[in-house]
Every structure is written in C-alpha cells, then in structure tokens.
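Summarise this fold before class:
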Amino acid sequence: MTDYERIVERLTLPEADYKLSSAFSLEEKQSLLNLSSDLYNAFGELSVDAYIESTRELDELMVDGIDPGGIETEVLHDPYMLRIFIPEYPPHLQQYTKTKFSRRLGYGMVTGRWYRYMSVALLKLRQKGSVPFTEKVVVIYKYHFPKDKMDADNYAQKTINDALRDARIVKDDSHKYVTVVTQGVTDKEKYGIEIIVLSESDFCSHYIEENRPL
C-alpha cells in the first residue's frame, strides 16, 4: 500500500461510523466538523503550495509585465467599459486558514500572484487606451465554471478591487464608488474569471442586453 492509499484509507469514514455519529450530541458533531475543517485547510494549503511551485514561471514573467498567456483585455465603447479575462480563479476563501502544522499562509502567495495578474491586465488596457472612471462603477465578476453547481461566492475578490483602485481605474474601492456583482456561468470551453467594469448608470442596460433570451 502506498503512502497515499494509506492516508485515504485512514481518512475515509466507514458507513458504520457515520451511522454511529448520528447519535452524538451537537457539541460532539461540531467538534468533528472542526476536525474535518482542519483537514480540509491542511490539504488545501499543501495543494496551493504544490500549484504555486509547479507554475512559478508565471510569476517570473509577470514580474516583468509579461503576459504568461491567456489574459484577455478589451476596451469597449457605447457604453464605455473594460473587460478582463484571467484563466484562473482568485483565492478560495476556505482554503487558506492557517493550519496546525504550517508556519505561513498560502493565501499571501496566491494574492501576490493575483496582484501581478491584474497589473499585467491593467497595463494591457492602458496600452489600448483605457481611462479612469469619473463616477461610481459596477464591477461584475463572472466566474466561468467547467460544470454546474459550483459556488461563485467562495472566492476572495479583494486583491482585484485593490488593483483597480491602485491603477486609478476607480476612485476608491469603497462602497461609495464601487458596487460588486458576482455571477457564475457554465463554460466547458474555458475556465477562469471575467471582470467587467462599467459605470453604474450603464449597468442596467448592459445587464438586460446580456441576459436577453435567445
């Protein structure tokens, strides 16, 4: 038996134990839930570390302002809006809690990468003639998922908002200047996040047009 198979066997809940646990008190069930959450976070952190390490060349390119591939940008008019597509998802909220054995947070590694993603995308938009918005905006986060029943509200978007603010695309990322709309669509061709920035006054007409029945 491999180490992987051994761990899977240890972590698999037998049906008999599942039935037995139904008689536990609320406090005991909550304690088990906390243990399972620790396991989820621990393996999530290990997965993040492995992913970051295996794709480190992306960071090296983006530090120099180079698109590593897959970043799409558009400056649209009538109405004026900015569109970005990045073939990756922002940090998953539940995957980066500090774990029992870790000495650092994988969250910081991934948010750093996302700031670099946005820096490259915003540079491409400036080269295409983007200008700052002078009024309140709506930022639409549209997640392209490969399958149904994936939650669009499980991801941290703060780094994206911060990058829009720091690039002066929006005046500030507070609620006074930015309204956020989160959506999810099933897209079997490509996955990632589509980011659309437009004036609040143009949002309703854009939403109606985008969701018009075929």
Observations:
- The two ends are 54 Å apart (CA to CA).
- The helical segments are 3-11, 15-21, 26-54, 56-63, 106-127, 158-166, 200-210.
- The beta strands are 72-76, 81-86, 137-145, 178-186, 192-199.
